[in-house]
């Protein structure tokens, strides 16, 4: 087991000092101290000097963010970079495709979560077996900072610069204390919250299936995690014994990469972790000082962890105020806030130094904005006269809200509505269901709608697409998502290759997926993907509505109820027919109005002539 060795770790080799020796902090006095440490066989990091040297040398670079290899499937531990979509110097916005990553399951697009500029690509296209969590690129907020990374060499730095670096001499003592505190644990491995879906940034611990002291083998279920898509079992990839559970059952909003548990190889080592905490997992913290001792310096002066790992998402902090009282926020965050009409005053920021990011604004908007400051200190807001109930928002609901908000704010929607006569379809359905009597199969109107949509996508492939910024991607496969309401929130499992399947196969698959969604048992491969979405509210009696595009798809079809309508079938001759009203919502960047109209025409033709399904 490749654990994070806290005790008996190999000492720093001379070759490993090259970074420190090249830094501007490598002055004669510092080099002398380093040589003394090496000569005495003392681990350099325990002296605290190396951390100070690296910190001072690293301060030459502007503030930046490391982009680490993401976990794009539950079992992914490493991946290959198939291609970069962004080059050094390119601007990046939330939702932009950074690269194509070949995982253990498929080749998946990696989307940016923040805005900025690509300062350095560390792992070039074609890089193989890149470990999850390892740094693959650097991003900066300001274009003017790009030049500072022109000659940057990977390995010359390992973390973002501190907001205010303490003098090297002052940093040495706390760094040594922190390292010493973390040096008493036996060899172990910290299990961190995994990314169980491509869009997952945090999750909730539903329940642990293992307790402290239990043995663990590869494939064992560690716990159930509620992601932004479903509740998924987290399987162990290692063997050993559970030494500590760092998160309790019911833990909410746990960032991907946050320490969750500890495992060891030998059962007799479990007792040593009785007082182990998440702070120890992050690299150890200085011992609590005595009452008379001065408070410790900021954590920025502590030594970095001995082994690189995927850091947990930064906790939200009150936004730092810039000179003059201006709130510190990224330009894109300010744009989103202005469009939504919310104030950033008093908002919490998760960026460097408390800077408000676009993701912070999206969460702020989804939660209803920041409450205004009270008129007087201590004044309590009056509760509504009738009282109220606060309903806990599930992780699925929260992420759905964020993605729909992003879609509505960033995708230029337009809407096309058309009426389709259903009499022929209803007659065909009745006839087919009679022939299926006794077999257990029964077709619904929605099954015909899925099939008709798939055939229309085959006929008008420009709608089966995604806007990629520099180009439009048209998919060869036709995978139709069907929106399902579940207790945890909206789910959109998909029918793969719907254009190639018969009505009975589509019917069985939709029923199975809907049941799994309502029970929270959908697997990632059943909802991660799709090229076109259908949302049907006809069963609720809704005549017509417009749906929000499900990114990165280019269109979604909203289906209303079938209602009777009197139409003129010949001059002076009228008849009552069943009419279905559908509305196609499109991303105008990818699908022009005429193309959307052409697709609706093809859909109407298939719905009104269901025997075309057999051609």
From TrEMBL:
<dbReference type="GO" id="GO:0004742">
    <property type="term" value="F:dihydrolipoyllysine-residue acetyltransferase activity"/>
</dbReference>
<keyword id="KW-0450">Lipoyl</keyword>
<dbReference type="InterPro" id="IPR036625">
    <property type="entry name" value="E3-bd_dom_sf"/>
</dbReference>
<dbReference type="InterPro" id="IPR045257">
    <property type="entry name" value="E2/Pdx1"/>
</dbReference>
<dbReference type="Pfam" id="PF02817">
    <property type="entry name" value="E3_binding"/>
</dbReference>
<dbReference type="Pfam" id="PF00364">
    <property type="entry name" value="Biotin_lipoyl"/>
</dbReference>
<dbReference type="Pfam" id="PF00198">
    <property type="entry name" value="2-oxoacid_dh"/>
</dbReference>
<comment type="function">
    <text>The pyruvate dehydrogenase complex catalyzes the overall conversion of pyruvate to acetyl-CoA and CO(2).</text>
</comment>
<keyword id="KW-0012">Acyltransferase</keyword>
<feature type="domain" description="Peripheral subunit-binding (PSBD)">
    <location>
        <begin position="328"/>
        <end position="365"/>
    </location>
</feature>
<feature type="region of interest" description="Disordered">
    <location>
        <begin position="284"/>
        <end position="326"/>
    </location>
</feature>
<dbReference type="GO" id="GO:0006086">
    <property type="term" value="P:pyruvate decarboxylation to acetyl-CoA"/>
</dbReference>
<feature type="domain" description="Lipoyl-binding">
    <location>
        <begin position="64"/>
        <end position="140"/>
    </location>
</feature>
<dbReference type="InterPro" id="IPR006257">
    <property type="entry name" value="LAT1"/>
</dbReference>
<feature type="compositionally biased region" description="Low complexity">
    <location>
        <begin position="301"/>
        <end position="326"/>
    </location>
</feature>
<dbReference type="InterPro" id="IPR011053">
    <property type="entry name" value="Single_hybrid_motif"/>
</dbReference>
<dbReference type="GO" id="GO:0005739">
    <property type="term" value="C:mitochondrion"/>
</dbReference>
<dbReference type="InterPro" id="IPR001078">
    <property type="entry name" value="2-oxoacid_DH_actylTfrase"/>
</dbReference>
<feature type="domain" description="Lipoyl-binding">
    <location>
        <begin position="188"/>
        <end position="264"/>
    </location>
</feature>
<keyword id="KW-0808">Transferase</keyword>
<comment type="similarity">
    <text>Belongs to the 2-oxoacid dehydrogenase family.</text>
</comment>
<dbReference type="GO" id="GO:0045254">
    <property type="term" value="C:pyruvate dehydrogenase complex"/>
</dbReference>
<protein>
    <recommendedName>
        <fullName>Acetyltransferase component of pyruvate dehydrogenase complex</fullName>
        <ecNumber>2.3.1.12</ecNumber>
    </recommendedName>
</protein>
<dbReference type="InterPro" id="IPR023213">
    <property type="entry name" value="CAT-like_dom_sf"/>
</dbReference>
<dbReference type="InterPro" id="IPR004167">
    <property type="entry name" value="PSBD"/>
</dbReference>
<dbReference type="InterPro" id="IPR000089">
    <property type="entry name" value="Biotin_lipoyl"/>
</dbReference>
């Amino acid at each position: 087991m490749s654990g994070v060795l806290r005790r008996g770790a190999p000492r720093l080799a001379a070759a490993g000092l090259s970074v420190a020796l090249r830094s501007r902090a490598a002055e004669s006095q510092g080099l002398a101290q380093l040589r003394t440490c090496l000569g005495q066989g003392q681990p350099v990091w325990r002296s605290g000097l190396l951390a100070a040297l690296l910190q001072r040398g690293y301060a030459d670079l502007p503030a930046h963010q490391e982009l680490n290899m993401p976990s794009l499937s539950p079992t992914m531990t490493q991946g290959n970079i198939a291609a970069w979509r962004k080059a050094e110097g390119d601007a990046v916005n939330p939702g932009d495709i950074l690269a194509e990553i070949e995982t253990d399951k498929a080749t998946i697009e990696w989307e940016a979560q923040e805005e900025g500029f690509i300062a350095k690509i560390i792992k070039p296209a074609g890089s193989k077996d890149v470990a999850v969590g390892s740094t693959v690129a650097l991003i900066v907020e300001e274009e003017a900072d790009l030049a500072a990374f022109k000659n940057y060499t990977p390995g010359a730095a390992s973390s973002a610069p501190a907001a205010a670096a303490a003098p090297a001499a002052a940093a040495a003592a706390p760094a040594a204390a922190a390292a010493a505190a973390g040096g008493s644990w036996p060899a172990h491995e910290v299990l961190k919250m995994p990314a169980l879906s491509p869009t997952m940034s945090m999750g909730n611990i539903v329940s642990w299936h293992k307790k402290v002291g239990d043995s663990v083998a590869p494939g064992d279920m560690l716990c159930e995690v509620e992601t932004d898509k479903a509740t998924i079992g987290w399987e162990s990839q290692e063997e050993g014994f559970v030494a500590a559970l760092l998160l309790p059952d019911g833990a909410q909003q746990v960032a991907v990469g946050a320490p969750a548990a500890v495992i060891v190889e030998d059962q007799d080592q479990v007792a040593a972790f009785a007082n182990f905490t998440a702070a120890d997992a992050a690299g150890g913290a200085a011992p609590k000082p005595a009452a008379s001792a001065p408070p410790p310096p900021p954590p920025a002066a502590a030594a970095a962890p001995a082994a690189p790992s995927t850091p947990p998402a930064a906790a939200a902090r009150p936004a730092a105020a810039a000179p003059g009282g201006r709130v510190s926020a990224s330009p894109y965050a300010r744009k989103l806030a202005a469009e939504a009409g919310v104030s950033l005053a008093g908002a919490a920021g998760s960026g460097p130094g408390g800077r408000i990011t676009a993701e912070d604004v999206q969460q702020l908007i989804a939660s209803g904005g920041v409450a205004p400051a009270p008129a007087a200190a201590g004044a309590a807001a009056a509760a509504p006269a009738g009282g109220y109930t606060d309903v806990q928002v599930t992780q699925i609901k929260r992420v759905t809200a964020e993605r729909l908000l992003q879609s509505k704010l960033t995708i230029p929607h337009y809407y096309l509505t058309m009426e389709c006569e259903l009499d022929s379809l209803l007659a065909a359905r009745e006839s087919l269901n009679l022939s299926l009597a006794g077999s257990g199969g029964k077709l619904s109107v929605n099954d015909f709608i899925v099939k008709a949509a798939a055939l229309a996508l085959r006929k008008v492939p420009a709608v089966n697409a995604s806007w990629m910024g520099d180009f439009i991607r048209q998919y060869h496969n036709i995978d139709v998502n069907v929106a399902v309401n579940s207790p945890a929130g909206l789910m959109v499992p998909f029918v793969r290759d719907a254009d190639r399947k018969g009505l009975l196969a589509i019917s069985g698959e939709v029923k199975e997926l809907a049941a799994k969604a309502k029970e929270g048992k959908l697997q990632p491969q059943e909802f991660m993907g799709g090229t076109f979405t259908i949302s049907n509210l006809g069963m609720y009696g809704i005549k017509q509505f417009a749906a929000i595009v499900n990114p990165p798809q280019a269109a979604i079809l909203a289906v209303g109820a079938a209602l009777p309508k009197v139409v003129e079938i010949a001059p002076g001759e009228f008849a009552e027919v069943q009419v279905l009203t559908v509305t196609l919502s499109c991303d105008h960047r990818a699908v022009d109005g005429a193309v959307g109209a052409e697709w609706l025409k093809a859909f109407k033709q298939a719905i009104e002539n269901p025997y075309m399904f057999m051609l």
